[in-house]
Specification:
This protein is α+β, with helices and mostly antiparallel strands. It contains six helices and eight strands; from the N terminus they run ααααααββββββββ.
Length: 284
């Protein structure tokens, strides 16, 4: 048997068609059933058979049971579904004057009521199976979402690991010089940032240790100082810490580095009154 045919069989047996025929289905699920019926003759045939079966039960016996039986039948049917007790079937009352003429009809009524109870039990079981299937689908969706989250987290971890490897490679390179920039007099002594300058590539890397967030409209600007002249190395934000090291361009060499607070976008020359940290190369 092909996989598609097996899936259609499982769909028919899932209980959703019975719920559809009884009108106890959501609009979304109704549209799904009708789409399946339009595409698969087996589904359409199963729906027609269910509708015909329910119609036959409705018109086969005209004897009306006492109103009190309704709750008894439903209670017993669903009690049987839960495994609490077996369904109880009651016989229809008969009129003494018409017992002989109505006996065949009453016997058929007894069978119709029994068949109704069996149908209700079957529908109840199918309904529970259908709800269970929906729960399984929801659990599967939740699992797929969790797997996607884990895959995303794994990609982030891999990317971070690569960044750490690159940072360590820069700092451990024997051609890399370290500049420790400390807070200048009058600033918070906790302010600090490091510079790693590679003499081979002439690349400058900034490691922000502790700097306050810049006010609105302001940015920090890095300067390389060579022979007493400042060289603009670009602007940055104190919260640029997604990567441990920020690549700040290149410079042939420097005697020291400094950071000032300037207007957003940077300025051609540093504002000395706004200097925060300054540092010379660490002697090995």
């Amino acid at each position: 048997m092909k996989q598609e045919e097996l899936n259609i069989g499982e769909y028919i047996e899932s209980g959703v068609l019975e719920i559809y025929v009884l009108g106890m289905i959501s609009a979304e699920e109704k549209a799904e059933v009708e789409a399946m019926a339009a595409e698969h003759p087996e589904v359409r045939k199963a729906i027609l058979e269910l509708e015909e079966a329910l119609g036959d039960l409705a018109i086969a016996e005209s004897v009306t049971p006492p109103p009190s039986w309704k709750e008894d039948i439903l209670a017993n049917a669903f009690a049987a579904v839960e495994g609490k007790q077996k369904p109880i079937v009651k016989a229809l009352p008969t009129n003494p004057e018409t017992t002989k003429t109505q006996e065949p009809k009453s016997n058929f009524g007894f069978l119709a009521i029994a068949a109704t109870v069996v149908l209700l039990v079957s529908l109840g079981i199918n309904f529970k199976m259908y709800l269970t299937l929906q729960d399984v689908k929801e659990d599967l969706y939740d699992t797929e979402m969790r797997v996607a989250e884990l895959e995303n987290d794994n990609q982030v971890m891999v990317a971070n690991f690569k960044d750490v490897e690159q940072n360590l490679a820069v700092m451990r390179d024997p051609n890399t010089a370290t500049f420790v920039m400390k807070a200048i007099e009058g600033r918070d002594p906790n302010y600090r940032a490091n510079i790693y300058w590679n003499s081979t590539t002439e690349t400058v890397y900034l490691d922000i240790k502790s700097l306050p967030q810049a006010p609105t409209g302001k940015q920090y600007q890095l300067w390389a100082l060579k022979d007493g002249k400042p060289i603009d190395m670009g602007v940055f934000n104190a919260l640029d810490t997604e990567k441990m090291l920020l690549e700040m361009g290149s410079v042939p060499g420097a005697d020291a580095f400094a950071v000032t607070l300037e207007v957003a976008g940077g300025v051609p020359s540093p504002t000395m009154e706004e200097m925060y940290v300054y540092g010379e190369p660490v002697q090995s």
